[in-house]
Amino acid sequence: MSKKTFYLLGIVLTIILGTILYYFLCCSVCCNAEKGANNQDETESVVSPKLKEITKNAFLINDANGDFNLKLNDNFNFKTSNFSIEEPVSKDIENGVLKLKDYLIENPLKNINITGFYRSDETNNSAYPNLGLARANSVKNYFVLHGVSSKQIDTNGKLNDTINPDENSTLFGPVSFNMLTADASDTSSMEALKTACDAIKENPLVLHFKTGQASINLTAEQRQKIADISHCVDKLGVKMQVIGHTDNTGDAARNIVLGQERADFAKAYLTQNGILDSNIETSSQGPKVPVADNATEEGRAENRRTVITIN
């Protein structure tokens, strides 16, 4: 075989070897890059959060056994972890409530049930057992201030994690309404209510706190008692009584003033938490009604109290 033939054969082998090396090297780099890109796409698809659709509930009240039917696109709105109605309330809502007032006056056996909703990730800073009930109470107060009788309103709260706020933490219409007709011949409900309210008089809510304290932290049991007292006020037309008491240390006249200050502080707390100012009466007994021995510090601490009941 001539030198020329060997030379040509070497060129051919070099070309073949180069092609093979190029294929494997390129495939390794390109395939890894493509695989990395695919993994990145998969990762991005996993971590990208799915946007939740904002909940917007209409203001809807319908009397299934009558001729009242109201549906408005607006509603009462609330910030998350808040029970105060967002202002301003639309004119359509105000006019709708006035129509409801006229209908309830004409139909005294009709009752409107307000259910307030709350999410499990919200913080309850109200005096009520849950934020939903506090919201329902705020809407009830709006109704009452626009002429609806509180005796024709029932309130309750319900957990609902399907309601979603917008990007500004506003919940649009986390309340629903249901109209029912009361049975005039059924007196058992009213008798049960009176029994429950009499029990509150026998065992009122008692708060102990230091003078100058900025807030009141209620237990779950105390929150429920606030709700029960509020229910008695609404249904029986009684007043919430807030009475301040002191120990017998110091000047008697000053203790009367101090007891009144404690009662006024508790009233301010209650009104901030949705109890209408007109439904609360305050007074002071000073050191006149001790419940423990003033000779001991423990007894004096027990006597420094505010009692919340109904008349």
UniProtKB/TrEMBL annotation:
<keyword id="KW-1133">Transmembrane helix</keyword>
<feature type="transmembrane region" description="Helical">
    <location>
        <begin position="7"/>
        <end position="25"/>
    </location>
</feature>
<dbReference type="InterPro" id="IPR006665">
    <property type="entry name" value="OmpA-like"/>
</dbReference>
<keyword id="KW-0472">Membrane</keyword>
<dbReference type="InterPro" id="IPR036737">
    <property type="entry name" value="OmpA-like_sf"/>
</dbReference>
<dbReference type="Pfam" id="PF00691">
    <property type="entry name" value="OmpA"/>
</dbReference>
<keyword id="KW-0812">Transmembrane</keyword>
<feature type="domain" description="OmpA-like">
    <location>
        <begin position="196"/>
        <end position="311"/>
    </location>
</feature>
<dbReference type="InterPro" id="IPR050330">
    <property type="entry name" value="Bact_OuterMem_StrucFunc"/>
</dbReference>
<protein>
    <submittedName>
        <fullName>Outer membrane protein A</fullName>
    </submittedName>
</protein>
<dbReference type="GO" id="GO:0016020">
    <property type="term" value="C:membrane"/>
</dbReference>
